[in-house]
Amino acid sequence: MVNFEGDLFLGFDLSTQQLKIIVTNEHLKHLKSFHVEFDKVYGKKYGVKSGVRSNQETGEIVSPVAMWLESIDYVFQQMKEAGVPLENVRGISGSCQQHGSVYWSEKGTTELASLKKDSGDGGIDLEKGLAEHLSSSFSLETSPNWQDHSTGKELATFERVVGGAEDLASLTGSRAHYRFTGLQIRKIARAQPEVYKKTDRISLVSSFVASVLLGEITNIEEADGCGMNLYDINTNSYSEELLSLAAGVHQGEDGSDPNTSKTGSDELRRKLGEIEPVTYKSSGAICNYFVEKYGFSHTTEIFSFTGDNLATILSLPLNQNDILVSLGTSTTVLLVTKNFVPSSQYHMFKHPTMPDHYMGMICYCNGSLAREKVRNELNEKYKQPKESWEKFEEILNANTQFDHKLGIYFPLGEIVPNAAAQVKRSTFDEEKKKLVDVDKWEIDEDVSCIVEGQTLSCRARLGPMLASEGKDDGEEFANIKRTIEDVISKFGEISTDGKKHTIKTLSARPQKVYFVGGASKNTSIVSQMGSILGSQRGNARVDIPNSCALGGAFKASWGYACEKKGKWLDYDKYIGDSFDFSELEDIKVEDKWENYFDGLGMLSLMEKELKTDE
Ligand code: ADP
Ligand code: XUL
Prior knowledge:
Layout: E1 8-14, E2 18-25, E3 30-37, H1 38-46, E4 53-55, E5 60-64, H2 65-81, E6 89-96, E7 101-105, H3 106-114, H4 130-133, E8 142-144, H5 152-162, H6 165-172, H7 181-191, H8 193-198, E9 199-204, H9 205-214, E10 220-221, H10 222-225, E11 231-232, E12 237-238, H11 240-246, H12 251-254, H13 258-272, E13 275-276, E14 282-285, H14 288-294, E15 301-303, E16 306-307, H15 308-314, E17 323-327, E18 331-337, E19 347-350, E20 358-364, H16 368-381, H17 390-397, E21 405-410, E22 422-429, E23 434-438, H18 443-466, H19 475-491, E24 495-496, E25 499-500, H20 503-507, E26 513-516, H21 523-533, E27 539-542, H22 547-565, H23 571-578, E28 584-587, H24 597-608
Parallel strand pairs: 1-6, 6-15, 6-16, 10-13, 17-26, 26-27
Antiparallel strand pairs: 1-2, 2-3, 4-5, 5-8, 7-9, 11-12, 14-15, 17-18, 18-20, 19-20, 21-22, 22-23, 24-25, 27-28
Helix pairs in contact: 5-6, 7-11, 11-13, 15-22, 16-18, 17-21, 18-21, 19-24
Bound molecules: adenosine-5'-diphosphate and D-xylulose (XUL).
């Protein structure tokens, strides 16, 4: 029997394929989770497959909003029936798929407000579900999904107006991406002007769920708001120019006169609502519909919801310069940093709970599948079982030093760096100071080369985000400086994605590295990666199956604690105080960080020679 005693908190995870809600207690302990899979329950009714409707021809991918509403009722009903004492829930927050947007009609505000009424005479009918109560609330019945690819034209426009991909990243934290909200809004404003006109308010998926729980439209949360290509992270305000572009009234691109342009961008600002700086404060209490129907207390506080990647970092006590390496099908690296060093190759968002901090996110396409390809060929050569990692591990464990062989393995086109599908193997001729291309070497060589190449790519891109300001004039730094100067004399200036590295960016080391995801089970891979990344406070493996939902519940718990104290509590300390550290498995690594400066030199040269699709 689960012990639901004491204050409870809920963490939502509204992802592409399911809604999950987890219950935690005041000690951050995960008590129970409930979920609904969209395909299973709503596949037929809403015509979704893997949670979405897709149009192969246009690249359009959307999710029905009413399905999400039904799913909230569905999961709350499950929780009620399971006897979760919902009256003891003190706070709710959560994580939602990023970039998606929900389009409210004018009726939305009144229909939402009806959820605040009680069920007395002429009040709310509790027999009806959310989808029925909000049946006229949307000017668009679907929400563009993050997998959508239909905004190619908008993508080019967004980058062009600000001077290119790098400039857009400097302004908003990311270059333009199909899925980013601003592009999706522009597409709708231009292709369906009547829908855009009828749209009274626009929410992100995160602020949409919070709005439903509140019974009123709430502001977009700042960290998730950085996923729109509209928010100027330097000034903490919308970019006027990008707003006018999203509204389809840009002077240059749309030929609008200054007046129309200004009115149009003001109108979109109103639809979106202002974005308020990251806060611990509650957005308000849960509305009556949920109190009467499911037994919540009138005092249950709703704390702003955020994006799923942002919620993931909230599930661990991550401090400045800590890194989370997620080794799933693709590789995603998340980092907490105080440095805003944007790049077209990765994303930067405001941190959802730590003011003056950012979350960096690097998403690689070629992760596990590329390693699997090497493993398969290796197993064929040694007549090993197809799926076994044993031989791969044996070779990796024997790799004790960098031997100036490096590979870049992109069986699929890559995002970071932007490159076509290809494999590149090189050695380095020290005398001629030149790369030597190698067409093929023994598959055994590929084993260490792929892990080294993938890790060095992360290290090169993390460097600027990790680099400290200030002076470093100790003896240790002087030695590193000499080493790096030697490396530069050998390889020339080292640069990544067109930006020159400095001694500081090359010598920066992460504090702690956490490994998660499928391939993190492989101790040889993670210890090799750890030894190259060179963390100062160790490496840990962690298995958090509900990390997004957990991050949401922790955010609610932390917000509630701050509210009680009436002041900011350091998020990482708050989580650290109750976190069950036995969930972390320490990974022993041999520190080979210094040996890999030459690797960074080689990678810098090799990446310059990669073929692109253009
Ligand atoms: P997803 O990104 O789809 O959530 P997972 O986090 O489950 O995926 O990771 C799946 C990947 O993990 C697989 O592609 C597989 O190559 C890799 N993986 C699983 N176990 C191991 C292992 N022992 N060694 C190396 N890779 C592994
Ligand atoms: C991040 C992104 C995805 C979705 C998945 O930029 O688009 O991770 O948030 O839900």
